[in-house]
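ok here's DNA polymerase I, seq below lol
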Amino acid sequence: MTAAAHLMLIDGSGYIFRAYHSLPPMSRTDGTPVGAVYGFTNMLIKFLNENRATHIAVIFDAGRATFRNEIYSAYKAHRPDPPEDLIPQFPLVREAVRAFGLPCLEQKGFEADDLIATLTRRAREENLPVTIVSSDKDLMQLVGDGVDMLDPMTSRSIGPQEVEAKFGVPPDKVVDVQALAGDSVDNVPGVPGIGVKTAAQLIIEYGDLATLLQKAEEIKQKKRRENLIEFAEAARVSRDLVRLRDDVPLELSFEDFRVRPPEFSRVRDFLETNSFRSLAGRAKALCVESATPEGATAGASAAPEASGAGAASSGSTGSAAGSSTVAPASASEGPVPGDMSPVLRKVIGAPDDYHLVTTIDELDDWLDQARLAGTVGIDTETDSLDTRKARLVGVSLAVAPGRACYIPFAHRSGGSAQGNLLDGPEAGGADPASSVRNIEDAPQALIRLAQFLQDETVLKVGHNIKYDLHVLIRAGLPFPAPLEDTMVLSYVLDGTTHRHGLDELARLHLGRTTTPFGAVCTGVGGVTSFDLVPLDQARDYAAEDADITLRLYMLLRDRLVRDRLVRVYETIDRPMIPTLARMEEEGVCVDAPRLRELSADFSRAMADLEAEIHALARRSFNVGSPRQLGEILFDEMKLEGGKRSSKTGAWSTDAQILEQLAGEGHELPRKVLDWRGYQKLKSTYTDALVRDIDPRTGRVHTTYSLTVTSTGRLSSVEPNLQNIPIRTEDGRKIREAFVAAEGMKLLSADYSQIELRLVAHVAGVSALREAFARGDDIHAITASEVFGVPVEGMDPVIRRQAKAINFGIIYGISAHGLALQLGISRSEAARFIEAYLNRFPEITAYMEATKEYARTHGFVKTPLGRRIPVPGINDTSPPLRAFAERQAINAPIQGGAADIIKRAMVRLPGALEEVALTGRMLLQVHDELVFEVPEVEVDFTIPVIRRIMEQTVALTDERGVTTVPLVVDVGVGDNWASAH
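and the structure came out like this:
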């Protein structure tokens, strides 16, 4: 090797999928699809022209099955099969590599990443620097001395610093972090509840995964500790899955990778065979001359041009200074297009054609194009990521794949006055403090946009469009109608098998690395707000978001029909978007003085407990200090059962330890637990809720997410209003602080025992069905059936035991769990469960059938058809498999309840408006809905709400006969506690 030698390893598989999804379908003259081949070849020519390495190899995956599937059968099980028209292109892509004289490597049983790892190790042993051409996070474990990565989309170099910024640890610790965090895309299990950030903190603290798992019992956080102990084997398996093999048997020498100019005749033959002759001009610069038949010079015979190809550029509305075409390809380049829509034909020559719109005429032109297209990608840019604070900075529209524009409303220079240009009478136009040029006559532009957003002939597609709805409302614009959301669409299709951010979906489905938000919102001068981003950068970033959204919609929408999920998306999740947006805008009234009183009460209770704790300890100390508490309990009081941290030597005083000591009759740890309880109520609720009051509305506004939970349930954040305590007296006091506005009442409508009703329905439990139909006390009936005691005069203890089993069965409760809950022995709990299942054999049959369905399909379904993935159902690890089986049993029930209440939520606002009632839906807490209703309308509102909630979904058998009625309990009060 010479001193200047340099090896570049190209991740060819990543190139293929990006090429396939970046261009519309294409075919050569014999009908063979070649769109991905054309895109790949184009990218390869560009790469070779821009990079002058001495040694290059292109590496591919040889197939889906690898040694990792032997370790963990579910590895990558949820990844969809390649599209049918892509499969015949795989060998053609390899032909392209060989035509350019490059080594084309693959090895059955291994992934491309393993070959890259092996070649990297061998190169470093020969002191040969290596650049890995990929942005794949799994390859970042290889970065280090003499090894870096090159993101082929952004030309950004990735070294140890960039890896540490992404994972929080150096490259040599990346495998341990990935093993803990798992990977939903590749179905790497990891440890539940641990993400990349937490994993990095743990690895930094303990050094490596093996040490962490060895010392897991020292972890203070109870749930984290329990998960690390229970899922230790899953973490070890995950480490084996993510760790790249660097010992793949490859019979090659690096001399085979030396770059030599390809023969032009070979390149030309490949291009002509695939109708790519128009690429010959750029390719020829890489080649050595060879015998070239007359007329076969570069570009001499371009492939036939599609009808309308290149028209995208002729319709450009921006001037030379106000438009940009990002990496266009000539309209004459490319193969004969296959069966494509007119819109796709129009943009075939300019896949990334992004424009800046600064005049009303330009805006009108783009809106006309959008109306002609009928479907448009839309996105807003704002000056904050906080939904309640974000103000409109600009709007982007995509009218076809690759063709998009950005309309700036409120950009400013770093030296301009603070404030949003839409706030004052001089909105729009050039910022007097800079050369920033926003759209002229912003008020008129907003009117045009408002008309467009309400145009029902145009479908508006956003990604997380609920956020955009809030932004548009505060800018004086209406809700777009009709609308679609690619984030929700992706969630309905794939559940929680992966996350649903735009960047992640672009990588997953389009093979495209999008520009990250941080890349445009950080830079010289510490720019952090989008309204300070230069317009050329803002245009490309914003237009790309709308463009990618539209591409994803076109890709994903067809899957709804194939996967039979149209009903779930169209009747449940999509219509929930405007419903939730309106609820979030409404917010809920809270009594701030009452919350402050409760904070003071909790502070006094904590002070009283602290005094009692000090008296028991016979000295004062900081009750909130785990170290000082440990010294009191175990050094001074000499209590047994203490555990020291091997790292710090301090005593552990987590909740589990304190509960154990309290259960043994020790008073001090019990009082510390009570003290911690008050501390949590104060910090998490009473203090925090006062801070969360929006000064503009005087109300608290939560944010609901449709795409987070595995079962389809909604989740509430910032603040979380679904976890307000209710079972304790102090918790109920907090709910008392949620109040109705003047002249209004709060109305709570709660499905009664909906999950038990669903069990009776889906499992076909005749005894429970009949009891529900009669309106009996289901827990008393269960106790009577299982324990053989009469309902009349039943001991409340027996009813409580039956209730615990009823609800526990839904969650796959074990004898150990039931024993802890009821305070009985494990053997007695096991007898209770056995007696229950013997009396209701239909439930056992349902459980076994559901587990078998999950094992066969990888998912279960709710009664309304939602698919819920069950990762790990076929895992070889018994703990992981048992956990997955419990999920499989519970998911159709919990998910079914979530589907039913969402269907009701979609119908309720319209049903109330239909009869001129003005009550507003404010909150959803799993099976409960909370409304704010004018006091004079309460008696009229209750029957409407009850009718919709009870009749929106009927639980019927195959004959259409209702098996179990849905029942809704309704309460009314001046505050939430009194209404529930």
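fwiw The chain has four domains: 7-255, 354-563, 589-700, 756-874. kinda neat tbh
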